[in-house]
Design goal:
With 284 residues, the protein is mainly alpha-helical. The protein contains ten helices and six strands; from the N terminus they run ααββαααββααααββα. The protein has a two-stranded antiparallel ribbon with strand order 1-2. Strands 3-4 form a two-stranded antiparallel ribbon. The longest helix is centred in the C-terminal third of the chain and has 32 residues. The N and C termini lie far apart (106 Å).
Length: 284
């Protein structure tokens, strides 16, 4: 016996697809970012990898981290930021809730649901207001008083995102002022790279569920253009010029389906051919 699909269930399903589609569109912009072109390099950034150079004669060691230009990381941060903003339609939590509903409704197998729970746990670990250590913490000390101040890389990284980049969060900037923008940026790069990796991984998981028939109705979100790759714009047609109706007044342009009238002339008739170049004097 088949159960009838209730209108409220159809509405919930439509809303779930809409939430998932919003995430897909934003996630595809993240996927197309220049930092994501080399996935191995992005993975190294997310892992906070560094090199160590040792000088045996002195016993000193130098650890080196090489990061992309700040502008490139800044644009990447702007692309991922809506995904961690609770009120944004693209927020990861809305997308994962929607995906969970659609997968349950389609009877997705337990291994798929387990992977979904894993994704939820990974996203939940992204804490914009968290004080915990992601990879390291920094200390600055006052040699006169002996006092020191300590902050985690999570605090510093999100202070760069919300204080230096997408907002001017005065509280975050004040909290991290002693460490400066350089240390905020240093902490933010692995954070931004990690969110990018998690975004792309979630997008690929959604692709997998669609390809295997567990979710449907997302073709438009996957097919839509999401980035501009050609930045030279060309258009061909006819151009007409006319004198203004009166001094200081905007020109009245006839509707497309009406004749322009005698006051409008083709551009080539108004401007005419360029003046010929003057002939160079003949050599004696």
């Amino acid at each position: 016996m088949l159960a009838a699909v209730q209108p409220e269930d159809q509405e919930i399903e439509r809303n779930a697809r809409a939430s998932l589609a919003a995430f897909i569109l934003r996630a595809r912009r993240v996927e197309e970012h220049s930092l994501a072109r080399d996935r191995a390099a992005l993975h190294r950034l997310a892992r906070m990898e560094f090199r160590v150079q040792v000088t045996p004669s002195t016993g000193k060691a130098t650890w080196i981290q090489e990061f992309p230009p700040e502008e490139q990381v800044e644009s990447a941060a702007a692309r991922v930021r809506p995904l961690i903003l609770n009120d944004d339609p693209t927020h990861y939590g809305k997308a994962l809730k929607a995906l969970s509903y659609l997968l349950h409704a389609s009877g997705a197998p337990e291994p798929v649901m387990k992977d979904l729970r894993g994704l939820k746990a990974e996203w939940a670990a992204i804490q914009p207001k968290g004080q915990a250590v992601r990879g390291y913490y920094m200390q600055v000390s006052n040699t006169d008083s002996g006092e020191f101040e300590q902050l985690t890389d999570n605090v510093l990284g999100f202070a760069w995102i919300y204080g230096d980049v997408v907002h001017a969060d005065a509280e975050r900037l004040a909290q991290t002022r002693k460490f400066g923008v350089k240390e905020r940026f240093r902490a933010a790069v692995p954070l931004v790279a990690h969110i990018m990796m998690l975004t792309i991984g979630t997008l690929n998981f959604i692709r997998y569920t669609q390809q295997h028939g567990m979710v449907s109705g997302l073709d438009a979100a996957f097919d839509a253009e999401v980035v501009v790759t050609e930045t030279t714009f060309r258009a061909e047609g006819q151009v007409f010029l006319s004198e203004p109706d009166s001094s200081g007044q905007p020109m009245t342009v006839p509707p497309i389906d009406q004749n322009l009238g005698d006051d409008w002339k083709p551009i080539h008739e108004v401007l005419g051919p360029p003046d010929p170049a003057p002939a160079s004097p003949e050599s004696p």
